From TrEMBL:
Stored SUPFAM superfamilies: NAD(P)-binding Rossmann-fold domains, UDP-Glycosyltransferase/glycogen phosphorylase
Name of the molecule in the record: Glycosyltransferase
Alphabetized Gene3D superfamilies for the sequence: Glycogen Phosphorylase B (3.40.50.2000), NAD(P)-binding Rossmann-like Domain (3.40.50.720)
Keywords from the named record: Transferase
Sequence ranges assigned to domain Glycosyl transferase family in this UniProt record: 472-638
PANTHER family: BLL3361 PROTEIN (PTHR12526:SF634), GLYCOSYLTRANSFERASE (PTHR12526)
Limits of the Glycosyltransferase subfamily 4-like N-terminal domain: 304-459
GO molecular-function terms, A-Z: glycosyltransferase activity
Domain NAD-dependent epimerase/dehydratase: 10-209
Alphabetized CDD domains for the sequence: GT4_WavL-like (cd03819)
């Protein structure tokens, strides 16, 4: 069995050691402080200032010696403290020494592209120490005829050390310095290069080890923030940044490192040719070697946006090779959730009773243990309380999705709602929701990820509609030969039904068209309000023109037969799912200019008359709503077709289920990989 001895099982050394063990090598290595490592590594506690008397025994029969300990002012600490042990090893015919150095030895190249022939010109004492150590190893190995490879490494990153972790911890900085370029290399690529050298017959060589995309440091932070759907840190000029002396030294030099030599000589193909692929790997759940358990918690699995999202995320976890777990009180969507092998745990998480909440904490602790859960995702307030305490006690990751704009009319309500922002990360389903969270709880940007609600573009697609059902609806509600105006959504005061009636009254009296206004949604829970609306309709003599359809299972078909869809809410919603679904159907949408609506209808008729994807009206203003309906009814067929295409494209670009699921899974992966090395 081949043997690797690594001085310095730090971030890089440990990764190299683990890889060699996977390839059936015997691995020895040193650490300064006790910590948990792969049990297959023979670990020595090594203080360079205090020699180990029996080091020769551990070094014996070593094939590859890897030096990953930083030098001091005297040069290499291993040679300066254990010279005799190393010379014995070299005399006994070790195959190769690999010394991990740094591209800082080149100093500042003023942004020029440089290779291994560029003269060393260190700016810092740290880099000068590296040159001294390089020369010590090269000269000693030359004396004994042993190949010595010096790897000059760029900035090292990978799982456990990256800008995604920095963002989650609130440590990321976006420092801007004109012309500044940094070079990087993924730790797995370093490992692959060390392994390739260990199995080669190359003579002594110096190699630059860097990826293919030198780039400004702020680009990496911004890309990481985009992957997490969080706002990047505020930009800070280099002059105003509070940096340590070491950090300042990094910004004192700029260069573009060429990696052609190592690619050609070792025939190396980088696994991560740029920071983009490297960061994408960190948020890719499929790449996890350990299959973590992920548990969603919700009050029930009945109808509703949050419940449907549980199903969609469960499906995406299946695609990524995971079993999805959901704890809730059950409901009519339970069967759909369990398709594909997902597991539902029945718990009374819809209860606000303090005793039941405490019982739920105990039950969730049992669930976390039983299914080896590593991450809990809460989707509502009562379940979030139990999930928070269970996660904390079991030391597993905890995050939430803030699905609604919750009322805070009392101190109790505020305390109750606060559990929705106690996770390591809070997902907001719109920029508007994020704004509300920050106004209420002063949560920093790095703790809020914006992931818009996704639309099922296969379900809400005019090509998926069954024409026979459409004909049936038209006949049943006498909708033939009429322009249909639809208001989908349960009947409540804040949904704007009364506003729609007022606007329709004006429209009906001033139009020669046959018009119908239909309300499609649950109307039994707020019977007094429904009665008030029906009385208003009778008073206006519109009972033949305004219809209540009640709860409709097939909303896409109702949208299909409509000409205009209204969303006249008088209070802001957290997202506006109906607006997005209607646009996905290519419908003309007229919505209240309130809350997050402009995030969906991002180009309206007044701001961009040539490229708009919907209409906005002044919230609560029935006259303005009437004007917008009238304007929409006067569009010619070509204008309607173009608007329909723009509406569909706007949803496909930003608001699909696929995009929502991918972003959520990235959050899971980033938390689960946060401390993985």
């Amino acid at each position: 069995m081949n043997k690797l001895f690594c001085f310095g099982l730090g971030f890089t050394g440990e990764n190299v050691a683990n890889y060699f063990i996977q390839h059936n090598w015997q691995v020895y290595g040193t650490i300064r402080k006790e910590r948990s490592l792969n049990p297959n590594i023979t670990v020595l506690k090594y203080d360079p200032q205090a020699k180990l008397n029996d080091l020769k025994d551990y070094l014996s029969e070593t094939d590859i010696l890897l030096i990953s300990i930083a030098p001091d002012g005297m040069g290499d600490v291993v040679l300066n403290n254990n010279f005799d042990d190393i010379t014995v090893l070299l005399k006994n015919g070790i195959k190769r020494v690999i010394y991990l150095s740094t591209t800082a030895v080149y100093g500042d190249a003023e942004g020029k592209e440089i290779d291994e022939n560029f003269p060393v010109n260190p700016n810092s004492q740290r880099a000068r120490n590296r040159i001294k150590a390089e020369r010590q190893w090269i000269n000693l190995c030359k004396e004994y005829g042993i190949p010595c490879n010096v790897l000059r490494l760029s900035g090292i990153y990978g799982r456990g050390r990256n800008q995604i972790k920095n963002l989650l911890n609130g440590n990321a900085k976006r420092i801007i310095k004109k012309g500044q370029i940094f070079n990087r290399i993924h730790v797995e690529d370093i490992t692959n290069i060390v392994f390739a050298l260990s199995n080669s017959r190359l003579a002594s060589e110096v190699f630059n080890v860097s990826d293919d995309l030198p780039s400004p440091p702020q680009d990496v932070v911004e890309y990481a923030a985009d992957l997490l759907s969080v706002t990047p840190p505020d930009a800070i000029s280099f002059e105003n940044a509070k940096l340590s002396n070491m950090a300042k030294s990094f910004y004192s030099e700029t260069k573009r490192i060429k990696n052609t030599k190592i690619k050609n000589i070792l025939n190396i193909q980088l696994k991560y040719s740029s920071y983009k692929q490297g960061l994408e790997e960190i948020v890719n759940l499929k790449n996890n070697k350990t299959k973590f358990g992920i548990l969603q918690v919700a009050p029930s699995i009945d109808s509703g946006g949050a419940e449907q999202t549980c199903i969609e995320i469960g499906r995406e976890l299946n695609i990524n090779g995971f079993v999805s777990y959901l704890a809730s009180s059950g409901g009519r969507l339970k069967g759909e959730y369990e398709k594909g092998g997902n597991i539902h745990i029945n718990l009374p998480l819809n209860s606000k009773n303090p005793l039941i909440i405490i019982m739920n904490i105990v039950s969730l602790i049992y669930t976390i243990k039983k299914y080896n859960i590593s991450l809990v995702h809460a989707r509502s307030r009562a379940p979030a309380i139990s999930a928070y305490f269970a996660s904390k006690l079991m030391k597993v990751h905890f995050l939430t999705t803030y699905h609604g704009i919750y009322s805070e009319k009392s101190l109790f309500k505020r305390k109750y709602n606060q559990f929705m922002v106690r996770g390591q990360l809070t997902i907001a389903n719109s920029n508007y929701t994020k704004q509300i969270i920050q106004e209420r709880y002063a949560l920093p940007d790095n703790q809020i990820s914006i992931i818009h609600r996704g639309v099922d573009t296969e379900k809400f697609n005019i090509k998926s509609i069954k024409s026979n059902y459409i004909d049936q609806i038209r006949k049943e509600y006498f909708l033939e030969n009429s322009k249909i105006i639809l208001l989908p959504g349960r009947v409540t005061k804040w949904k704007g039904h009364e506003l729609a009636i007022e606007a329709f009254r004006k429209l009906n009296s001033n139009s020669n068209l046959s018009l119908k206004l239909i309300f499609a949604g649950e109307n039994k829970k707020h019977e007094s309000h429904t009665k008030k609306l029906k009385k208003l309709i009778v008073d206006y003599g519109l009972e033949n023109d305004i219809k209540f359809l009640g709860h409709i299972k097939d909303i896409p078909s109702i949208m299909y037969l409509s000409d205009i869809v209204l969303c006249p809410s008088v209070e802001p919603e957290a997202f506006g799912r109906v607006i997005a679904e209607s646009l996905a159907m290519g419908k003309i949408v007229i919505a209240s200019d309130i809350g997050p609506v402009r995030e969906i209808i991002n180009k309206n008729d007044e701001d961009d008359p040539d490229n708009y994807n919907g209409y906005l009206f002044k919230s609560g203003d029935s006259s303005d709503l009437y004007k917008k309906i009238e304007k929409a009814l006067n569009l010619n067929p070509k204008q309607i077709q173009n608007l329909s295409l723009r509406a569909v494209d706007s949803i496909i670009e930003k608001f699909t289920i696929k995009k929502m699921c991918e972003k959520t899974i990235r959050i899971y992966a980033s938390l689960l990989n946060k401390n993985v090395r």
